[in-house]
Amino acid sequence: AGLLAALFLLTIYLTLGLSSSQSLRRHQDLDGLVRELVVDMEIARQHSLGNNVGKDYCKLMLQEDRYVLQHRYRVKKKRPYPPGIRVTKGVVQFDVYGRPKYKMVVVVASDDEPYERRIVVAAQTGRIRIE
Fold this sequence. Notes:
It is a single chain. The protein is α+β, with helices and mostly antiparallel strands. The protein contains one helix and eight strands, in the order αββββββββ. It has one domain: minor pseudopilin epsh fold, CATH 3.55.40. A hairpin with a 2-residue loop joins strand 2 (66-71) and strand 3. The N and C termini lie far apart (51 Å).
C-alpha cells in the first residue's frame, strides 16, 4: 500500500512538472517571436527613414500564420508563427521620418493560456517597445 501511494505521488509530481515545462516552453517561443518581430520592425523603420521613394518601400505584413518582411516588392523574410501562438493581423509601415503610418499595437498571445506581449510603436517618434 505504501509503495502504491509513493508511485501515485510520484506520478502527480511528474505530471505537474511536465505541464509547467510545456507552459515555460510556450512562453519562451512567444517571447522569442516578439523579439524577432521587434528586430524586423526596426529593420523596416531604418529602411524607410529618409528614402524619398514613397510608400510601400519596406513593410512587415502580419498574416494569419506567419509574417513577411518585404523590401519594395521583394520578399526578404518569411517567418511562420510557432503552434498555439496568434498575432494581430495588419501591416507595419513607417514614413520617411521613421514614424508609423498607422496606429500600431501588435498583440502576440498564446491560444491556450492568458499570456501575451504587446509591441507598441510611438506615433510621434516611431520608438518601438515591448509591454
